[in-house]
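Lab notebook page, bench 4
Experiment: in silico fold of construct C2
Operator: M.H.
Input chain length: 143 residues
Purpose: comparison with the prior construct
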Amino acid sequence: MSSTPSPTATDEISWVLTPLLELPGVLHAVIATGDGLVEGASDGLERASAERVAAMTATVHAAARAFTAAFTDAERPRLAQTVVESDLGYAVVVPAGENTSLAVFTSPDAQLGNVAYQMQLQVAALGRALASPARRQEDDDRS
């Protein structure tokens, strides 16, 4: 019997990125806290780059929320996703639970609908994993 991934270690939460990185056109992925810290990152992304992405993810997400609020006068709108398009590809950020975001970077020819759908599936899986209590050692001893 396997245990549920623990949210306490960066490497243990990165499993959520694997299905995203298998999609055609997805180049990198990062799980970031709301204050811009790396919770998990794709293997191909250097640590310094992952840290910059996490910091910018928090900034972009906050700016998109403020931008939406300016148009709507809503006090704290809930974002579904933020997409930045460039000649190099797309950066997509989605909320991934309390104080967490999931960000991916794709090539320009990636199928954004498929990427967005898979991101939502992974956010749901991450939410279930983080909501599950961690197994205690004594539970393992009884098995």
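Observations: Confidence is low (pLDDT under 50) at residues 1-10. The first strand starts at residue 26 and ends at 33.
Next step: discuss at group meeting.
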